[in-house]
Amino acid sequence: MLGWYPIGTIEVAKSLILTAILFAGPIFEMAVVEGRWKDWVQGQPLHESLSSWIGWRNYVAGPVTEEILFRSLLVPLHLLTPLPNAHVVFLTPLYFGIAHIHHCYEFVLTHPHTPWAPSIIRSLIQFAFTTVFGWYATFVFIRTGSLLAVILIHTFCNWAGLPRLWGRVEPRVAIGGPMVRGKEDSRSELGKEQSNSLVWTLAYYAFLVMGAVGFQQCLRKLTLSPGALAKIE
Choosing a second label site near 225 at 20 to 30 A (CA), which of 44, 93, 109, 118? Predict the structure, then answer.
């Protein structure tokens, strides 16, 4: 019931694939538009992320401890109650969301000159995001019975962050290059950059929509497992 064993290697792989489908847009932006795929091949982001305490907190300690508490311990307790399993999916993540409200107080302490209203709005947005993620993680945990699967998708979501929902997509600006250019060259380069930005933006939002549609279609297929903790109708 706790999801510790069996590990569910196949369930882990399918859950990560499902999450990557949902984040198709952001992955496209980071890998292709910003050209980070070369860094990924070399393992540079992993080294940079785990070389600081903040990285360990966000990608290791946080996901492990939070998923053990909010999924492995709380979810089975609720499954043993008369509550319908679908209600458990929507109820237990509220604890997860509430546990992040303290960030409002931390933000006020670190930004003493910021009014309370923006701090509260920021916390409400974070509460909404963490609750939605909690719904997804709880659904995956119950359907797969794998604690490792939800730990890794938690790490993945912390790494990817919130998807861009508006604005233009632009590549990273390279440092260096010629210092002096003629007016015609500058205008031509500016027009080319704007054209490329429009193409990248259209491609990004296309991947974002396709990812959302693909996620909806694959949600139940990729979380189907003989190790499920309960059925969710």
Answer: 93
SS (H, E, C) the chain: CCCCCCCCHHHHHHHHHHHHHHCHHHHHHHHHHCCCHHHHHHCHHHHHHCCCHHHHHHHHHHHHHHHHHHHHHHHHHHHCCCCCHHHHHHHHHHHHHHCCCHHHHHHHHHCCCCCHHHHHHHHHHHHHHHHHHHHHHHHHHHHHCCHHHHHHHHHHHHHHCCCCCCCCCCCCCCCCCCCCCCHHHHHHHHHHHHHHHHHHHHHHHHHHHHHHHHHHHHHHHHCCCCCCCCCCC
- 10 Å Cβ neighbour count for 33? 19
Catalytic residue among 29, 47, 48, 66: 66
Q: pLDDT tens across 106-133, in order?
A: 777 777 777 777 777 877 888 888 889 9
Residue of 29, 34, 87, 100 marked catalytic: 100
Report helix angle 9-22 to 116-144, nearest 10: 140
With vertex at residue 58, the alpha carbon angle to CA 55 and CA 64, rounded to the nearest 5 degrees, is: 120
Q: Are 151 and 15 in contact (CB under 8 A)?
A: no
Digit-coded pLDDT (tens) for 54-92: 888 889 999 999 999 999 999 999 999 999 999 999 999
Catalytic-residue membership of 189: no
Active site residue 67: no
Q: What is the pTM of this model?
A: 0.82
Q: Which two tokens stand for residue 226?
A: 């003989």
